[in-house]
Amino acid sequence: MRVVQCQHREPNAMPFYAAIEGDELTALASSPFSEPIRLRHSEKHSLGDVRLLPPVIPSKVVAIGKNYRDHIEEMGGMAPAEPLVFLKPSSSVIGPGAPILLPALSERVEHEAELAIVIRSRCRRVAESEASAVILGVTALNDVTARDLQKLDGQWSRAKGFDTFCPIGPAIAFGLDPGHLRVTSRINGETRQDSSTDQLVFGVGRLIAHITAFMTLYPGDVIATGTPGGVGPLLDGDTIEVEVEGVGTLTNPVMADPDA
Ligand code: MG
């Protein structure tokens, strides 16, 4: 099952969750975090009548750097001995279709296509072997990065934390094995990244164990698992697509920040 968060286009419309099949939405009668998920079969909508929202607004996005060997090679670094953890603020999160705004402070903004994990339940100190129990589902995420500021600052909060630098969506997919999913990105229809999560240096279970050894995760928190090789610049007027197998395609236009 794939679940989206959406709202009708009129002002002040209430966000709601719905299961999606093709272009047809069926409203959820329960929270996507409760089991079993129940559908309100009497309430159908058409995808064309709604605006998709981020499937969750996480309290934090926990992201992993340097977790595919080909990306480590293109960045010119060493593979870390343990997962390299950083945070993206919830204020950077946007949904499908919302514009990624290029800040005047950076001359080099890049895309990073990633598999993202959505956390089901409050958890800490989760054993690697128990990690699947705290996963609600998976989605796609674009870890947009001001590459020049990442190198300049040394630590990454600014480079990866601008408003609009964390598109998430379009859906949460339930019941997939996160260890074998194709991850791709395209700019203006041209493929830039094409890999699989079976290439992850540290797999999803290891990441959850590593993160929850020092940090409590809350329902709806998101883990961005790292990007494969092929990252490159985003330019004003581009359309960037991040696709994760079984999730769908996360599409965002790119534009210069009009307020910058
Ligand atoms: Mg990344």
Bound molecules: magnesium ion
Alpha-beta content class: mainly beta
Provide the CATH topology of the largest domain: Fumarylacetoacetate hydrolase, domain 2
Q: Give the H and E element order.
A: EEEEEEHEEEEEEEHHEEEHEEEE
Keywords:
mainly beta, five-stranded mixed β-sheet, SH3 type barrels, twelve-stranded mixed β-sheet, 260 residues, Fumarylacetoacetate hydrolase, domain 2, binds magnesium ion
Q: Could you characterize the architecture of this molecule?
A:
There is one protein chain. Strands 1, 2, 3, 4, 5, 6, 7, 8, 11, 12, 14 and 17 form a twelve-stranded mixed sheet that branches. Helices cover 11% and strands 41% of the residues. The protein folds into two domains: 2-52, SH3 type barrels; 61-256, Fumarylacetoacetate hydrolase, domain 2. The protein has helices spanning 69-75, 147-153, 157-161, 204-212; strands at residues 2-8, 16-21, 24-28, 39-46, 50-53, 61-65, 84-88, 93-94, 100-102, 109-111, 113-119, 135-142, 145-146, 166-173, 182-187, 190-196, 222-224, 232-233, 239-244, 248-256. The mean pLDDT is 97. The protein is mainly β. The chain contains four helices and 20 strands. Residues 63, 112, 114, 143, 224, 226-227 line the site of magnesium ion.
Chart the SSEs and their pairings.
Layout: E1 2-8, E2 16-21, E3 24-28, E4 39-46, E5 50-53, E6 61-65, H1 69-75, E7 84-88, E8 93-94, E9 100-102, E10 109-111, E11 113-119, E12 135-142, E13 145-146, H2 147-153, H3 157-161, E14 166-173, E15 182-187, E16 190-196, H4 204-212, E17 222-224, E18 232-233, E19 239-244, E20 248-256
Parallel strand pairs: 6-17, 8-14, 9-20
Antiparallel strand pairs: 1-2, 1-5, 1-14, 2-3, 3-4, 6-7, 10-13, 10-18, 11-12, 11-17, 12-14, 15-16, 15-19, 19-20
Bound molecules: magnesium ion.
